[in-house]
Amino acid sequence: MLLGYAVIAVVLFGRSALADPTHVVVGSGQLPSFAGRDQGTYVWFLAWAHHALAQLQDPFHTSALYAPWGFDLARATSMLGPATVMLPVTATAGPVVAYDILALLAPAGAAWTSFLLCRHLTRSVGPSIVGGALFGFSSYLIAETINHVSLALVALLPVVALLVVRRVEGHDSRRRFVAALALVLGLQLWTATEVFASLVVLGTVALAIAWLLAEPRLRPAIRRAAGDAGLALGGAIALGAPYVVPALTGPDLLTGTSQVDNGADLANFVFPSHATWLHAGPHVRLARNVTEQLAYLGVPLIVILVAFVVTHRRRQSGRLLGAFMAVALLVILGGRLWVAGRPTSVSLPWHLVAGIPLLHHAIPARFVVYLWLAAAVACALWLAQEPRRLRRWALAALALAALVPNETGLPWGTRLDAPPLLARGDLARYVPEGATVLALPFGIAGDSMTWQQEAGFRFRLAGGYPNWALPASYKRFSIIGALRGGPAGRHAAARLRRFIRATGVSVIMLREGMPGDWQRLLGGLHARPVVTGGFAIYRLPSPRHGRGLDQLGARPAMRAGGDRAAGQRG
């Protein structure tokens, strides 16, 4: 089954990447202007894991970003677990190929493990195939495959559910269950801390619902399973200590921000995003961008879920799944109800977490992955109840057809930025080994981390995009907006010089053709850029050599080799 689901994933998402697997990544961007930026960051994470281990460096803290202070990668979606697994591929075929394999295995793996869960519950293969496909190719997986591969790697969620079910049924001993669940939870923690945290929250909710609504004879088994799961959670936290300790003890990068009100748009459950072939027209508005519009179930699946709750209302499976889906829906909607792209004045229960540290940073719309898993199981159980009724299978087929990705209106492959200078391999002529580089545009507005890993980490970056939030060491610089391509503003040259001195920048690399107020921003440096291979490169003197930036004489920009002058572009 895994192979079959993998073939479907390749056909739906991988054709562009397979045409040029060393340069094209699966998916695109939330917006056309950000195409490839998130993928480039994940490719960097894969490359960094290989580089750090090969150089015997700390994989959790890098000095390659946000020089000179560095960055703690435990505070980013660095997915060091999958990066470690993919080390042989990264070493032999490169990080882009490793990324594409992960991106294509994400939906296929999720479909396969949910198939295993459904088969255990239904004892029927056909309904389980449908259940696996519903989860693996849900609107959640489709959207996250676009550019959030760490959030798409959710194949372990059905495994957690399967382990708990087997423990309640008495198939596994306590020791085996605790060891297996601790390992699975630990792997999830090393894959995506956000998914791990939401799994703890929704898993606790599921166990509480099961204990409250289960038959009296099952409650002792559920209570024992919950206690054993607590032990396994402790083991998982021990396995994931390099991630957990910084989260609990380090500075909060997201101070002052809350995601409590960023729940799913109620209309999104019926109207699909642009990522689906049945996407709503321009007259239907949905909150947030395409990679956060995750809640589309479609009318056929909603009908199936209603029919399941009605036909299974006297069965334990119907009561438990129905109650869990209802509670999950309330959580997914967030702290404030959104309808058709607009926030309403209706306050929802999730607003109560606004004051809880860490949890209020979670985006509740992403919790829809648990509703999808429950929906997939419910559909499989519903089909297995009357396996010979063609009407049920026809409705399930419509539910799957409604989820088919938009193959023509959305790019499913993005070519990472590979400037000619890096492709030629003569970067060493312009950037000394170990130099601190200010690559422009800064952060998410550019592709600096892609350039760095393409250059084999020969230079450090004064910046980067491992996380959308700036570390405290960089928040104090008012020039960041201009470095991203925004207006230079007053005293831009002076503010840039302060940034350069504080970070130790010795080279500035401006990507040609990028929008920004670059002439006003960089002209005050009075440095001579060399324009070559897609960059305007500025070599700056070190303050230690006695020549400050303010003392440089103005010189014209020169092409590589000095053949002619060239102005800055953009």
Give a description of the structure.
The chain is α/β, with parallel strands linked by helices. It folds into two domains: 2-35 and 94-401, no CATH class; 420-559, no CATH class. Helix content is 50%, strand content 8%. It has a six-stranded mixed β-sheet with strand order 8-7-9-11-10-12, covered by helices on one side. A two-stranded antiparallel sheet has the order 1-6. Strands 2-3 form a two-stranded antiparallel sheet. α14 (299-311) packs across α16. The longest helix has 28 residues, at 95-122. It starts with a helix and ends in an 11-residue tail after the last strand. Residues 551-558 and 561-570 have low confidence and may be disordered.
Keywords:
6-stranded mixed beta sheet, 8% strand, two-stranded antiparallel sheet, 2 domains, 570 residues, 12 strands, single chain, disordered C terminus
User: What number of structural domains do the residues give?
Assistant: 2
Question: In what range is the share of β-strand residues?
Answer: 5-15%
Estimated radius of gyration: 26 Å
What is the residue-mean pLDDT, rounded to a whole number? 90
Q: Quaternary status of these chains?
A: single chain
Spans of at least 5 consecutive residues with low confidence: 551-558, 561-570
- Shape descriptor: elongated
Largest sheet: 6 strands, mixed
Number-wise, the strands total 12
Share of residues in helices:
40-55%
Tally of individual helices: 23
**Distance N to C terminus:** 51 Å
Strands in their spatial order, largest beta sheet? 8-7-9-11-10-12
Structural class: alpha/beta
